[in-house]
Amino acid sequence: MKKIYLICSLAVFIGITAGISFFLIRDASAKVPANITLMNQNGEDYNFDKNPKLKLVEFIYTNCPDICPTTTQKMVQLKGDLEKSNVFGKEIDFVTITIDPYRDTPEVLKKYMNAFEIQNNDNWIFLTGDQETIKADQKKIRELGESLQFQYKDPGNGQFVHTSFTYLLDGNNKFIAKFPMGEDFNKREVYEEIMDEIN
Prior knowledge:
The chain is α+β, with helices and mostly antiparallel strands. The chain has helices at residues 2-28, 67-84, 106-115, 134-147, 187-198; strands at residues 37-40, 45-47, 54-60, 92-98, 124-128, 152-153, 161-162, 165-169, 175-180. The chain contains five helices and nine strands. Helix 2 (67-84) crosses helix 5 (187-198). The longest helix is centred in the first third of the chain and has 27 residues, at 2-28. The radius of gyration is 19 Å and the shape is globular. The termini are far apart.
């Protein structure tokens, strides 16, 4: 009986270890596709490959009632800490991508930025799709999200169900780390990870 219990326990342990290893390897190999170009808040093209800095990537939709605005607010506070260390905009940029490009036009994104007192410059980019090519751009946004294992869907009521992580990428757009969104976004932890990568 003890032998059976030991074998079962060992099998469970191996299964859990294999599962954890799978997710760690999958995340570590994640990279944003080089061919994706989207529109920023100023109606200009943005391509990840033309930005060789570290990037903290956040996925949102502006009608989100809770987790998205909470994360953005915490990132505003993090931005202040990084500015004090003289690295924001020099060593790292923030990139916010809407998962609702139909509603979140550049004008809507600028209003969202204004609500959080985010300056409109190249150091914090907000990305959406071009309304003239919106179906194709929506596919690009989904491809970009899936490259980082970010999943989302619209159940039809405009309130998206989505993965709750932000992502730190290196200068080659490869995955470094991910952090919880919303109230669980630990500003200190993210700051330290960013500074470790810079130093």
